[in-house]
Design a protein that fits this description.
By secondary structure, the protein is α+β, with helices and mostly antiparallel strands. The protein has one domain: Alpha-Beta Plaits. The protein is built from two helices and five strands, in the order ββαββαβ. The protein is globular and about 40 Å long. The chain starts with a strand and ends in a 6-residue tail after the last strand.
């Protein structure tokens, strides 16, 4: 199962995204043929490139087999471009999790303890 955790802070009604963590494999098919792993990977790599190459924000990331951690520099949390990118990938993964609930779990970890 792939576990997706998104990190966020709240300020009033505003959600400010600060990063995400993906860990695991969907195990729908063999490596290289798993459509869910491919979709999750493509979305994650796209948003990482958007943050670092398009919006050009300082971003710490770590990648390994079945693992990707992406965190914005604390001074970049709340950036409008980052919020759009991270909210978009969250919604895309949330949609995939509805289609594959036993293969992809997603949650938000709020710095103030609030959950969604």
């Amino acid at each position: 199962m792939i576990t997706a955790v998104f990190f966020a802070e709240t300020s009033g009604e505003q959600t400010n995204w600060s990063g995400f963590l993906l860990d695991g494999h969907a195990d729908l098919d063999e490596a290289g043929r798993d459509i869910l792993c491919a979709a999750v990977s493509a979305l994650a790599q796209t948003v990482l490139m958007g943050l670092t190459e398009v919006v050009k924000l300082p971003t710490k990331w770590d990648r390994d087999e079945g693992y990707l951690s992406v965190r914005l520099d604390p001074g970049s949390v709340g950036d409008a471009g980052a919020n759009v990118l991270l909210e978009t990938v969250y919604l895309a993964l949330e949609d995939l999790a509805k289609q594959y609930p036993d293969r992809l779990g997603i949650r938000i970890s709020y710095s103030n303890g609030r959950g969604r």
